[in-house]
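Appendix C reproduces, verbatim, an entry submitted by the partner laboratory led by Prof. M.T., so that reviewers can inspect both the input and the predicted structure.
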Amino acid sequence: MNSRKVVYLFFTTLLIGSVSGALVGFIIDFSVYTSEGFLNLFWGIIWLLGISAAFSLISQMGFFAYLTVHRFGLGLFKTQNLWNRIQIVIIAFVVFDLIYFRYVAFASEGETIFHFTLMPVLLLLYGLFIAYIKAKETNAGAFIPTVFFIVVVTTIEWVPALTVNEPKWLWLYIAPLLTGNTWQVLTLHKLQREK
């Protein structure tokens, strides 16, 4: 990877994350942004692009942190097989924690634990889908690390919104994180292959 490819990955991730977050935020609060004229719409979109750009920067920091942790894990555990097993256990813990701890912290009367399973299960299914694409484009060894990155690293990046538990912020935050993380993980191997 040369500096040109790193700059390309940085700016494309920033753009994709910003636009996706702004789009989701605009859809969530459509009436707020369209109710008071053009200037309200204009500044609302600028604000959405800015906040989503900040979230996509968090996505990029998480990606490069994971690349470091992944190399460290491979070196520490000597074989990819053992490191993959450890990642599977961590994925299971994170999905469980996303369900159980949010239920304990935020469940109101009448809500069951099943109300808190939808987002974590969808995130896991999405991670499996992206990992399937990554493994198909590279090799089978990329499957578990990709699931780990999409599920675990995205969850760590998502923590500020998870602690607030406001549906608008959960969706506004996750959109640039997921699109940014997906773009990075599916683009890196293509950039590495380029001359």
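The CA atoms of residues 66 and 149 lie 7 Å apart. Additional entries are available on request from the coordinating office.
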